Amino acid sequence: MLAASAHGSAILLIGRTLTKFYQHVLSLTFAVKEINGDVNILPNITLGFNIYDNYNDAQLTYRTTMNLLFKSQRLVPNYECETQGKLTAVIGALASKASFRMAQILSLYKIPQLTYGSVPLIKNEVKQLPFFYRMVPSEDHQNVGIVNLLKHFGWTWVGLFVTDDDNGEHFLQALELRLSRHGICSEFTERIPPQEYLHTLNEMELKLKKFIKFFNHMTSNIFVCYGNTFSLMFLWYFAGEMPRDMKMTFPGKVWVITAQADFIIASISRHRDLQMFQGAIAFRIHSNEPPGFQEYLRTIKPDWAEGDNFLKEFWVEAFGCSLPDPRLPYVITGSCTRNDRLENLAAPLFQMQMTGPSYSVYNAVYVLAYAIQAMHSFRPTGREILYEQKEKNKDFQPWKLHRFLQEISFNNSAGDRVSFNDEREVRGGFDITNLVTFPNRSFHNVKIGWVNPEAPEDQLFVLHGDMITWHRDFNQALPLSVCSDSCHRGYQKKKKEGDKFCCYDCDLCPEGKISNKSDTDDCLQCPEDQYPNRDRDQCIPKVIKFLSYEEPLGKALAGVALSFSLVTVLVLGSFIKHRDTPIVKANNRELTYTLLVSLLLCFLSTFLFLGKPGKLTCLLQQPVFGMVFSVAVSCVLAKTITVVLAFLATKPGSHLRKWVGKRVATSVVLSSSLIQAGICVIWVGTFPPFPDLDLHSVTEVIIMQCNAGSVLMFYLVLAYMALLSIISFTVAFLARKLPDTFNEAKFITFSMLIFCSVWVSFVPTYLSTKGTYMVAVEIFSILASTGGVFCCIFLPKCYMMVFKPELNSREQLLRRKY
Question: Whole-number mean pLDDT of the chain?
Answer without folding.
Answer: 80
